[in-house]
Every structure is written in structure tokens, then in C-alpha cells.
Amino acid sequence: MSATAAAPIPSILLELQRTLQSVDEQQVDKLADHITEAGAIFVAGAGRSGLMMRAFAMRLMHLGLRSYVVGETVTPGIAAGDLLLIGSGSGETKGLVSMALKAQSMQANVAAITVVPESSIGKLASTLVHVPAATKEAGTTAASIQPMGSLFEQSMLLILDAVILRLMERTGQHANAMFGNHANLE
């Protein structure tokens, strides 16, 4: 058994540390700016990336922001001044590219979190956070001991949690106040 297989958590933590230290903090700040300025925030992603985006929409709701997950039955239409935030490792998922184009046609802003800034979604985004991680697609430059896009997905969740901390600071909100927006019918 390899040392990595015997102790995967320290190896995963090292990968996350290496990846997150390479993320441009100015890009993260710019994303927080766009969220603050948006009328409503729509999030989208496919597969596990989509799950990370759903978690982010929940935290935005806890902050009292109008946030929606694209594809849910209660999600309204996007409008001018709104923000569509897409999480996509490859930046080439066809359905997500179509969403970005539609959002732009409605004069909404598009932001992206991706491994590939020069991807179709990356080129459509006015705000981009580049995550130098491996994706499930072959040919990405970053190596990972983890399968498929795990490193990207984990990194994206932590980056989005950092955005929440920035938004909490900007709005003067604390976790106790946010708990007032937590689901209570469970």
C-alpha cells in the first residue's frame, strides 16, 4: 500500500493547500463585488460542481440575498442586472454554455469559476475565478491523487465559503443572524 493510500487525508489537504494558495485573491474579491451589486444571483453547475453551487446558493440565502439554483421549479427568470455564476471545471459543458449565452442576451452578468479560463464559459464571463486544479477531463495540467474533478470541486466549495466570509464582513452580518434564515420546517 502506498503512503498516499494509507494516509489520504494529509495528501488531500496538501493538494487543497497548493491549489488554493494559487488562486488570485483579487479574482475572489471581484466575484464578491459582482454578487454585492447583483439584483439576484443565479447559480449553475453540472454534477458535483452543481452540488457545490447549490451549497453556495444556500449560504447566499442565509445572508438574505436573492439566490436561485438554475433548473429548480421555483427559480424565476433572469433579468438585466442579475448575475449568473457558473461552476465548471472544463468550462465547456454545453448546457452551461447555453445558459451563459442566454444570460448575456438578457443583459445579466456572467461569472465563472473554472480550471480553464480560455474555455467557452471563461470567455463569456465578465468575472472569472481561475482554479488551477485537475478536472475529470484528460489534459489538465494539475495532477491529483483524487479521482476526476474532486480537487476542483473541493477547491470551489472553499473559495465560495471565502466569498461568503467577505460578504459577511461587507454587510456586517454574523453567523447568529444568518441562522435566522436557516430552514426551520425540518
TrEMBL record:
Residues 31-173 form the SIS domain. Pfam families: SIS (PF01380). InterPro entries: PHI/rmpB, SIS_dom, SIS_dom_sf. Transmembrane segments: none annotated. Belongs to the SIS family. PHI subfamily. This is 6-phospho-3-hexuloisomerase. It comes from Paenibacillus terricola. The lineage of its organism: Bacteria, Bacillati, Bacillota, Bacilli, Bacillales. The gene is hxlB.
